[in-house]
């Protein structure tokens, strides 16, 4: 056999060398096949014959969650820079699959004119406001950062974009003339019934929308869940949490300063407190931890309490705030109430959704069940071995989109788009009631049927345009 092989290939080699080369070739082929299937993500449609349907579904769920919760590149603000309050509890996370247009960094600078203030302020120290100059884009190390903001009226005509904050928007805020090359952007982070505006009069004025609404041209979210660059050590974290269980009380904590909300969450919590103890801090309760929304405060409450009440002040379409995303980075379970589809926003078994219970009393009984079962309680933290809650770098998305020079069309039917969120929910007389007749995607089965599309709705169109 050996003599035949050597004659065929005209080589003179020992058995040991021939065996070594064979093993090397087999190893290289196997490794190449593995890497190729990993990086190309070739779907395996031909499952093994003995693979169970449940395993197939689990594989599909894994791929789905991988798409929802992207791999993240973290960015931590320099310790030499003073942090804003709403930057303290989380870090910036850049989804790795985004920000591919790094060549745009050195392209022509884009100027953003601030046509309105931000809640009556110019240049406020706030994460959801643009600061004058290039500061905002450099502060967060945006991959595409060649943008600057200005409020100098002399720069209106040459600005690449005009930014209008809905709360501060008035008819006189809109210039009479514009360049066809400009992009006019309407943005807000508040729910519609806190931003009551007759949007019909703004049809044909704006090109882009920027908000927490999922249908916005630029998503301006309060946060997102991403895959950590370096997964946490499971064993050490488990030991820490087991030790932490000794200091936790069977109680929930609620930081609240708005005592009379549109969602009427305060009445819901009053019912909940009859069954499960909830300590209130802030303007509606005892003295709050200072400064609020900081790592210090969240760490203190996570040591003492088992649950964190994360109820939104408005239960509206897509509306979810830092009340969800901040406590997720600490060893305390958020109890949520909002109008967003939480199953598409956070990993399974990471929060307890009040809408999944018929009454506040049912929710209270479940909290007792979880708090008294150590294994069940700790299972709500398993997702943290892989994922983490991040601040979403909306300002970087804005700068990059401006550099892409996408042709813009004016927005019509803004009233339908924006005020669709009026179809919010309110707790009243032992159930959630609709606030308006507008359609609203209710994600909980027991609430479906409250909202039905209104027939013969009038659509608004406008042919208005502005020329330089």
From TrEMBL:
It is an enzyme of class 2 (transferase). This is Fucosyltransferase. Pathway: Protein modification; protein glycosylation. Keywords: Glycoprotein, Glycosyltransferase, Golgi apparatus, Membrane, Signal-anchor, Transferase, Transmembrane, Transmembrane helix. GO terms for cellular component: Golgi cisterna membrane. Residues 108-223 form the Fucosyltransferase N-terminal domain. The chain crosses the membrane at residues 21-42. It is a single-pass type II membrane protein. Its main location: Golgi. Residues 247-417 form the Fucosyltransferase C-terminal domain. The keyword Disulfide bond does not apply. It comes from the Eukaryota. The keyword Transmembrane helix applies. Belongs to the glycosyltransferase 10 family. It comes from Nephila pilipes (Giant wood spider). One of its GO terms (molecular function) is fucosyltransferase activity. Its EC number is 2.4.1.-. It is found in: Golgi apparatus, Golgi stack membrane. Pfam families: Glyco_tran_10_N, Glyco_transf_10.
